[in-house]
Amino acid sequence: MTLTKEIKDKKVNFEFNKELINIFNSKIKDNDAEFLNKNLKELHPADSADIIENLTSENRSKLIELEGFNLVPEIFIELNESIQEEIFIVLSVDSIVNILKRLESDNALKILQNLNDDKKNIVLLKLPPKDRFILQEGLLYPEDSAARIMQREFAAIPSNWFVGQTIDYLRENKDLPEEFLEVFIVDNNFKPIGTVQSSKVLTAPRDSKMNSLMNETQVLIPVDMDKEEVGRIFENYNLVSAGVVNKENKLVGMITGDDVFTILQDEAEEDVLRLAGVGDEEITDSVFKKTKRRFNWLLLNLFTALLATWVISKFGASIEQMVALAFLMPIVASMGGNAGMQTLAVTIRALATKELSSGNFSKVIIKEFIIGIFNGLIFAVITGVIVQLWFKEINLSILIAVSMILNMMVAGLFGILVPVSLKRFNIDPAIASSVFVTTITDVIGFLSFLGLGTYFFYG
Amino acid sequence: MTLTKEIKDKKVNFEFNKELINIFNSKIKDNDAEFLNKNLKELHPADSADIIENLTSENRSKLIELEGFNLVPEIFIELNESIQEEIFIVLSVDSIVNILKRLESDNALKILQNLNDDKKNIVLLKLPPKDRFILQEGLLYPEDSAARIMQREFAAIPSNWFVGQTIDYLRENKDLPEEFLEVFIVDNNFKPIGTVQSSKVLTAPRDSKMNSLMNETQVLIPVDMDKEEVGRIFENYNLVSAGVVNKENKLVGMITGDDVFTILQDEAEEDVLRLAGVGDEEITDSVFKKTKRRFNWLLLNLFTALLATWVISKFGASIEQMVALAFLMPIVASMGGNAGMQTLAVTIRALATKELSSGNFSKVIIKEFIIGIFNGLIFAVITGVIVQLWFKEINLSILIAVSMILNMMVAGLFGILVPVSLKRFNIDPAIASSVFVTTITDVIGFLSFLGLGTYFFYG
Question: Which residue, B243, B261, B279, sits at the end of a domain?
């Protein structure tokens, strides 16, 4: 490593700190292209991207426009989408073309798909025909398909070859990817019949038959498979690499584990953010973008809150007669909401990892219902006792206990039924479920507590 | 593949269905060890584990006890922890010893660490001394450290070797792991100075120097690093394999990408479940276990709800004077709670992926505060107008608008301050944050709405 010493000292344990960012900010102000070139080139592209993301946005544009300065192309694919957008507005079409030419096809595709349509078309026209063809073909597949993350270069040999023959071929062939984790064995129709790990080719004698080393139980990815499903398969089968096949079962590409980490991470992260009603927000997004993204969710929540208000308003007379109803009613709604969210979170993860399927569905539903009853009973007793001690009014205590049981049962049931039903209608359960579930538990919470109270005691 | 045809037909697109499970359930009832042996051996261990997880628990014990039946050891490491526990209670110590002997060190360790202490010690005593030593050494490291997931077998050579020499050595050496993605180049002190991908060794001429193919900017994992941090590093640097070094910087093992998928998935999943107050629940856990896990969270929530009740009860006189206060008060609390959870979810993911650091902390806080003000203003207007149209009482409309702005600002601020502070005290922010934040937004919501109402209009 030939990093400048002041940078090397600051970069400890894969952590970045403010001081480090400040050095870069000040070197940009000084137009020190030599320093910037040297260090951003020597650092891992992921680290350089981290630094660029944390510069002030003014210095970021200055860095890009600096004379005699060229970013390593791999840095771009490591940048957040919002920062990529910001930079590609400043960059000339020729610079973008140059970056794309120097990237592998899967990475070039990742950048290209983030450009707006006008810029995308001009850039495509300026690319060499061979690159353009590959990228245009990739763009034909859906944005979330395996085709968008696969590499189109791979190593494949016929099944009757020997190890020695294979090594000689690999040494001579210049069209191979720079790195590959396995060699595919294909039949006459280019249909993959097995794979041999690169390390197995290395350790076997030259006169071994390749198909004797072959792993037959290979997992093949259809080219149009959703990339989240690809991630799930890599995780489930502990893969580091897998072949991609087209509709005719011909080998057309390969996907390696490093492409999948980000997908797996993003997918699970999506669930956290969607459950909280944020969507695909990134920390670098602008205030305006963030406010807009969160607005819809809050608006939806306002209407469900107004629905609860409307339910409560029907029982105004009872509240005026017994004001403690107003003190206690949020408890029932809130406990139901929390129990519902617990069931919901478990269900959504089980659906995402396919642990919940038609095979165990009814068993799981019954379980959740029983948990609802158990927790309902336990908290009915606890809450009933507390309310009795506090308000010394037995009717109120019975009332809150009964409506607690009811709402906890409802919470358990709908916590699982809502996401499963949404999934059946092909709606992402993580996005819409929590509004439904909390609306149901709010309404049932207020309705059962105030309704039963009005009917039996304070009507 | 030599799967029984009825199984092969049912297994389409990596999906399991009820029919498939039923076939296995009925073959177990028929004591058809031959069928079971054949198919559970031919399926991918991950698929076999899925089937076993979905059997009735009675049939699962029967399967394990079936005469002449032996599960492939790799199946065990693919099983959920709760199912592993269930099975290892039934299995004899000798069977467990046999399974461990046939597994690689990292996988054997995974099983061993899930046994109870008594069984663990007896099993260790019955293992051959070499295996026992390796496993005991592994157990010395913390449960979540890199040492627990690394393989102790790897390929390493000195820096002055040629490609041909390396290949000859790899062919002759019988102590190598079955598969390795890269060859480590080490100095005289066994300190790694670079790596060469296996495929690069394959494609280079025999007379190339290994160090000319070497990748110097390697990422090395300290043996005691937390495994979640290992996962983050693999994701950040797009690794498929990395060396593990001890305190003296000597190479002691390697970690491959397939070991990391599960860690990354689990970690993000943990955040979803913890935010919802469920902890590390699995879908196969028993009703009793699930009820117990969720109980603590609900109890905590009950006390925060009682706190809100106490706040409301201080304003009983105002509610009796103006009952619409009771109808509207949940709106302010609920909007604050939702806005707080949005900020919280973004913050927790940013902390987990280290996108939020001391370098950008104050910038991000200010952003959230501004978003809180923006959304507060927007929803103050919307809610104020709706309330005016509904109740035609200007004081009520002003009141709800002002308390809405207040609570949304509080939500944005505490949605970021709470998790960051918890993290600073080394408490997992995903576990505890949401209780704090919703308690704060509930209390401030009720307090500002009822308090301001009492002070200015209905006191």
Answer: B261
Which of chain A's residues have a Cβ under 8 Å away from the Cβ of B276?
275, 341-342, 344-346
* Chain A partners within 8 Å of B181 (Cβ): 181, 198-199, 240
Q: Given this model, what pLDDT does residue A399 score?
A: 95
Question: B91 with B113, same domain?
Answer: yes
My answer on whether B106 and B179 are in the same domain is no
Residues A136 and A188 in one domain: no
Interface test with A, best of B44, B236, B288, B385 (most A CBs within 10 A): B236
Residue A378 and residue A402 share a domain: yes
Residues B346, B438 within the same domain: yes
Closest chain B residue to the Cα of A179, Cα to Cα: B199
How many angstroms away from the CA of B81 is the closest CA of chain A? Answer: 14
CA-CA-CA-CA torsion sign (B99, B104, B110, B112): positive
Q: Which residues of chain A have pLDDT under 70?
A: 1-17, 67-69, 217, 358-359
Q: Please tell me whether residues A365 and A427 are part of one structural domain.
A: yes
Domain annotation covers residue B268: no
ipTM: 0.78
Predicted pLDDT of residue B6: 60
Helix (H, G, I), strand (E, B), or coil: what is residue B355? Answer: coil
- B125 vs chain A: nearest CA distance in angstroms? 31
User: Domain boundary residue among A148, A181, A206?
Assistant: A148
Q: Whole domain around residue B129: which residue ranges? A: 5-144
pTM: 0.79
Q: Which residue of B16, B171, B271 is in closest CB contact with A272?
A: B271
Contact between chains at A375 and B256 (C-beta distance less than 8 A): no
Which residues of chain A lie closer than 8 angstroms to B290, CB-CB?
Answer: 367, 371
> Domain with A360 in it: what CATH number?
1.10.357.20
Radius of gyration in angstroms for the set of CA atoms belonging to chain B, rounded to a whole number: 30
State the CATH number of the domain containing residue A107: 1.25.60.10
- B9 or B137, greater pLDDT: B137
Evaluate whether residue A277 is within a structural domain. Answer: no
* Chain A hits for B265, Cβ within 8 Å: 235, 264, 268, 353
> DSSP of B109-129, one letter per residue?
HHHHTTS-HHHHHHHHHHS-H
Domains contained in chain B, number: 3
In B, minimum Cα distance to A278 occurs at B342
Q: Is B359 within 8 Å of A277 when comparing Cβ atoms? A: no
- Please give the residue of chain A at the shortest CA–CA distance from B203: A171
Structure-block tokens of residue A228 = 């989240």
pLDDT band of B79, cuts 50, 70, 90: confident
Report helix, strand or coil for A151. strand
Q: What is the dihedral of CA A42, A44, A47, A49, to 10 degrees?
A: 90
Q: Which of A104, A226, A238 to mutate to test the interface with B (most CBs of B within 10 A)?
A: A238
Q: Among partner residues B257, B301, B344, which is closest to A258 by beta-carbon distance? A: B257
Chain A residues with CB-CB distance to B240 below 8 A: 181, 240-241, 256-258
Among residues A234, A216, A237, the alpha carbon closest in space to that of A225 is found at A234
What pLDDT does residue A3 have?
62
CB-based burial label for B123 (10 Å; 0-12, 13-18, 19+): buried
Give B-chain residues touching A241 at CB under 8 angstroms: 240
Q: Are residues A254 and A337 in the same domain?
A: no
Return d(Cα B183, Cα B171) in angstroms, integer: 13
Residue of higher predicted confidence among A32 and B281: A32
Q: Are residues B140 and B174 in the same domain?
A: no
Distance in angstroms between the alpha carbons of the first and the last residue of chain A: 80
